[in-house]
Amino acid sequence: MQKASYSRRLLGVGLLLLLQLSGCLSAASRESILSCTPTELEPEVPSECIIYVRDGQQEPSMSFSPEDFTVSVVSSSGRVTVQKSALRRGADITTLVFDITSSGGSILTVNVFYRPTVQNGNYPAGPIRKSGQTLTVLSRPATVIGHITCSLEEDKGLTLRQSTICEAQLSDADGQPSVVHADDIILDEVNQLGLFEFISGYRILRFRFTALSSPSLIVTHFTIRASIRLNEASQSITFPLKYPDLPPTAMFSSLHCDDQLRPIRCTVYAADSEGPVVFRPADFQVSVWRWIKDIDVILENDEQNGSPSPGDASDDEWYTNTEEFLVSVSANASAIVPITRRADVGLVTASKRINDAIQLQRLSVSVNSNGASTPIAASPFYFHSGVVPNAAAASLRGCNAPVLGSGNTTTCFIDLLSGISGDIRYFQLTSSLGAILHKPEYVEYDEACRCRTIRFNYTAPTVVKRNDDFIYVVVINDAGQQIINSPTRVNVFPVYDTADPGSDNLTTDTFMIIIGTLFYGTILGIGVYLVIKRAQKGRRVHKQRIARKMQEVRERRDSADVDASNEVAIGGSRQSSEILPRQTSTTKQGFISNAAVDQERYHSDDSD
After folding, report:
1. Which of 137, 169, 187 corresponds to the end of one domain?
2. How many angstroms separate the CA atoms of 546 and 603, rounded?
3. Are 63 and 77 in contact (CB under 8 A)?
4. What spans are recorded as compositionally biased (Polar residues) (predicted)?
5. What pLDDT is recorded for position 527?
6. Does 380 sit behind a cis peptide bond, omega within 30 degrees of 0 on the bond before it?
7. The dihedral formed by the CA atoms of 279, 281, 283 and 287, expressed in degrees to the nearest 10
């Protein structure tokens, strides 16, 4: 059984071989197939075309000659040269192979015709299958580069350490697709903030840009630029520069503070092992510490911002006084000008709530990680809590009472300018008369000057006569210079005990005042007396004049009455008696008229 089965298998294989051999010996035909690769190529780069020879049954055939096929190549551009190799048998005995090259960019149409000969004249002539295939020859190098687009959106930005793939269309002056090689194109970032990788340049320029982990310049944008080396064609694209939003590491983060500024301003740079990261205030902890041995320290101007001597002091010599300071931590605020701000930079400020003393402090910035606090690089920073006073930044305003009696007290003021400290240890107060200057006190805000002030009490000394006292204020650490408006003057007067009548402590000035008062008082009294006497005499003369005039009026009236009585006695007639009333009446009218005249004269005299 096994032998019979094996025999049948051998017979089947032999029949198949026979059939195949008979097929291969069949003549070629128009059923042959054309295939060219690549269909997109560069100038002077060949495209290999293969003719798969088939018979009329579309079976492979070995019975053919290269002369049975004719190849025709048509170019779309008359300015290029097209070269075609001769037909040759391929590695497979059932194929023919030829190559096509072009000197420049064009569209090539490849036509293959079957031309039967005497040996295979059973099949008609004509183009084979897939004849008329087109090959695109791209011009090189490109002269025009299109707009650059990347896998990231422009407005969302590119993060440090991140990559993006960008593309740009390539063409020649006629708008035909072109090709570039890596050495034909220039890829760069304006500030050298990244690396490029050329991917391809057929029709479309493709490249990868990878941003650096740490920028070497303070910039806010990436600017990617692509240009063709042999001409000025270029394109660019800009991305906002972003920082990785990752936790910072204390070892790689750092602190930088400015010694010359008060309040203290420190810059914190957030970074991990690879480079800068986004600064987040919650990742950092700020504390302020005071040295316990700075109680009697007096600083000179040129030493106020130097590194303090106790930099190597143990932690036991410091105690925290953060609550005495206004501490602020803000992100992305490292510069006043927004264009220079960086997301990896934070700003720490610390100022004393009450600027009444200069103290030796240290500011520490730590990173919170896994419940532990680790100081960052260059932390802590040592500083003095206030600006050392200088004579040009303080002004002696004066005292509430510039005139004062011996033993009395008034309040005087020193106005503080330019942010200097109100530490009274730096001010020396003296009096030319030895007055008592005591109870100096720092005032954070004075309504009178709307500034910070030091006020102190002035108690006038005992003097025997009026005297001028001068108050001097000197800044002891500023070469003994007096502050503005120093000295100021206070007039001091003696004070007398008026309850003792036998006191003989009258001064010459007081005696002269008394003498002057008596002298001028006497002159004034005499003048008043003379005025009064003159007025009394005038009134008396006026009264006498009035009495005299009244006497004359009475005398004239009595004389008139006597004359009338005599006429009645002599006439005795009725006619006379009738006339008498008329005369009497006339006499009375004359009396009234005279009286009136006298009265007018009286008023005239009175007016004199």
Report:
1. 137
2. 10
3. no
4. 573-592
5. 87
6. yes
7. 130
